[in-house]
Amino acid sequence: xxxxxxxxxxxxxxxxxxxxxxxxxxxxxxxxxxxxxxxxxxxxxxxxxxxxxxxxxxxxxxxxxxxxxxxxxxxxxxxxxxxxxxxxxxxxxxxxxxxxxxxxxxxxxxxxxxxxxxxxxxxxxxxxxxxxxxxxxxxxxxxxxxxxxxxxxxxxxxxxxxxxxxxxxxxxxxxxxxxxxxxx
Length: 184
Hints:
The protein is α+β, with helices and mostly antiparallel strands. Helix content is 27%, strand content 29%.
């Protein structure tokens, strides 16, 4: 009988459009240091919206908070090099969060400039959509870069509705109501 090299839940390998292999997995506490180091590679407008800041550095407390999500109401996936947590460069992350007792989630996607337009953001959005569906979340709200038409088109295909665009922020607000979710 052959032994299969099976990955744990929410772990998967993905080959990007440029041929680079990445590992998609839940974030780990060991990733906080690497997250701080790779943070300057993320899209500035997404960082500003996510953290309500124009800082190009991620503070120690913020990094620790992201790297240790509360499993009751937070979900964070990262796309990394295929190395151990705490050693692998983080290329992208997606974070979904609900308030205690709420069935609405907000999400944020951060993709490194070195892997933009390679399908990573779209893939992470599909995974997050799967998480929200499994949790019974009825509404998901987030902001996506308005110049990234592939991820916006993918959001449309998942059932998201575009609610507003802000020329100043460069972001588009997208909303997914529970009944309109497509299979991820």
